[in-house]
Design goal:
alpha+beta, 6 helices
């Protein structure tokens, strides 16, 4: 087989494997990285590097592998944009955690967030008590959005904090 075509086919196989593995093992597995996750990422990248380029450790082989990964990711994003069913398969919809001060325990259980973690996220948004939350949503990127109402002024406040370490849920 042509060495360039070999790198292309290997890179596509590894990319598809990784996308499927992340989907099966929790697509938001990587939204908050702890020390174990960083080690896992480093080991995975080292393990699949050889599978992508094989014996071709040249600059050309590495650049072709990177180009194939960028192209595959671009195509995947385009498919997600143009096909709602495919997007839903790849990325879950946002999950409502609190509505009008009432926690949806079923939703918390489904996304594996404890009450303590939810309360921490609410406090990060400057809201003292859960009963003051009009709406709290776990977004598709792992962040929690909070809409609250100030009882004194009857004014609605919306805040969405982009975390350095996003919440991990499975």
């Amino acid at each position: 087989m042509n060495p360039i075509l070999d790198v292309v086919v290997r890179s596509l196989c590894v990319y598809l494997f990784m996308v499927i593995a992340i989907r099966l093992f929790g697509k938001n597995q990587l939204s908050q990285l702890n020390a174990g996750d960083v080690v896992l990422l480093l080991l995975i990248s080292n393990a699949v590097q050889n599978a992508m380029v094989g014996p071709d450790t040249s600059l050309q082989g590495g650049l072709i592998a990177a180009l194939v990964l960028f192209a595959a990711n671009f195509i995947l994003k385009r498919l997600m944009f143009s096909n709602r069913k495919f997007e839903t398969f790849m990325e879950e919809d946002p999950v409502i955690l609190i509505r009008d001060g009432v926690i949806d325990q079923t939703a918390l259980n489904r996304v594996k967030i404890t009450r303590d973690e939810l309360e921490e996220a609410i406090r990060e948004h400057g809201v003292e008590k859960i009963r003051d939350v009009k709406l709290s949503i776990l977004e598709v990127d792992g962040n929690i959005s909070v809409i609250s109402e100030d009882e004194k002024e009857k004014q609605t406040h919306y805040s969405r904090i982009k975390r350095k370490n996003k919440r991990k849920y499975y």
